[in-house]
Design goal:
five-stranded antiparallel beta sheet, SH3 type barrels, extended, Arc Repressor Mutant, subunit A, alpha+beta
C-alpha cells in the first residue's frame, strides 16, 4: 500500500497464502489501527492509499524500498521476509561470487571466538605460491566485495587484513597471547568528509549533495581506520581521483590529511 498505492483482498491471499476470510479480517484490523490510511474505491474494487496515509508497519524511507528490491534481485529476498507484492521491472547488477571454504571459515570463526592462533597457508598476491604463517584472528570485515579476517600476523608482527577466500588451508591451533585491544586501527574510527567536486555547476553540486545526504554541502562517513582504504576505493577517492574529470569524479575528499598512512 505504501508504495503501490492500492491493494485488494486477493493481493493478500496470493502474497501471504491465507484464506479470503483471513484477508478480510486482516484488512479490518488494519483499518482499526489506522482508520485514516486507506479508503475503498468501489469503481476499482480495491483499497487505495489516502492523502493522510502514515505507515505503521514498514518504513517510508526510500532506502527501505530499494533495499527490498535489492533483496529480490539476490538470494536474500526469497526467504518470505520481503514485503513487496508487485515490484516494478528492475535489474540488479550481478557481482562475481567470491567463494569461501566453509571448513576454513569455521576454523577462523572458532579461533576468533576462543582467542586462538591458527596456522594457515595463505596465497598472497605478492608471492607466487601459498606460504605458511601463524595468525591470531579477532574479527571479520566486509569491504563490499570480499570478506577479510582481521588478524595479528606473527610473521610480520602487526595486525593486517587477510582475504578469507585466499586462505587455502588451515592447520594447528593453539591459545594466542595477542590482545585484540592492541589493534588500534580496528578500534579507532576515522571520519571521512566528502563534498561535491568544486568544478561542477551549482545545479550539479545540488544534485550530488542531495544524492549523498549532505548537510551544508558536506557528508561525513565514520569508518574503522583499518577500513578507510576500502571506503576510499569504493568512492573512487583514490590516487587517480585528481586525474578524472569533474563529471566523472563528482565528489572530493575534504580531509586527506586525516586519512591513515597507506589509504591511497
Amino acid at each position: 500500500m505504501l508504495w503501490d498505492g492500492e491493494m485488494n483482498r486477493s493481493d493478500l491471499v496470493d502474497f501471504f497464502g491465507i484464506s479470503p476470510q483471513q484477508a478480510s479480517a486482516d484488512i479490518q484490523h488494519y483499518k482499526e489501527r489506522a482508520p485514516d490510511n486507506i479508503t475503498y474505491d468501489r469503481n476499482g474494487k480495491c483499497y487505495i492509499r489516502s492523502e493522510a496515509f502514515s505507515p505503521i508497519l514498514v518504513s517510508d524511507r526510500a532506502e527501505a524500498y530499494t533495499d527490498a528490491l535489492l533483496g529480490l534481485g539476490t538470494t536474500t529476498g526469497h526467504d518470505g521476509s520481503n514485503w513487496i507484492g508487485s515490484p516494478p521491472p528492475y535489474a540488479v547488477l550481478p557481482s562475481p561470487h567470491r567463494r569461501i571454504s566453509p571448513a576454513i571459515l569455521r576454523t577462523v570463526v572458532q579461533a576468533i571466538c576462543r582467542g586462538d592462533m591458527v596456522e594457515v597457508d595463505y596465497q598472497s598476491m605478492n608471492r607466487p605460491a601459498p606460504t605458511t604463517r601463524w595468525l591470531s584472528p579477532h574479527a571479520l570485515g566486509y569491504d563490499g566485495l570480499r570478506w577479510h579476517v582481521r588478524a595479528y600476523s606473527h610473521q610480520h608482527e602487526m595486525f593486517r587484513d587477510y582475504v578469507v577466500a585466499r586462505i587455502v588451508k588451515t592447520g594447528d591451533r593453539k591459545a594466542s597471547s595477542i590482545d585484540p585491544a592492541a589493534d588500534e586501527a580496528w578500534h579507532k574510527t576515522i571520519t571521512v568528509r566528502i563534498a561535491p567536486h568544486e568544478q561542477l555547476t551549482d545545479a550539479q553540486k545540488t544534485a550530488i549533495a542531495w544524492e549523498y545526504g549532505m548537510r551544508d554541502g558536506v557528508a561525513e562517513i565514520t569508518v574503522r581506520a583499518s577500513m578507510v582504504f576500502y571506503l576510499l576505493r569504493m568512492l573512487r577517492l583514490d590516487e587517480d581521483a585528481e586525474r578524472r574529470s569533474p563529471k566523472a569524479q563528482q565528489i572530493v575528499l575534504l580531509n586527506p590529511e586525516d586519512m591513515p598512512r597507506g589509504s591511497f
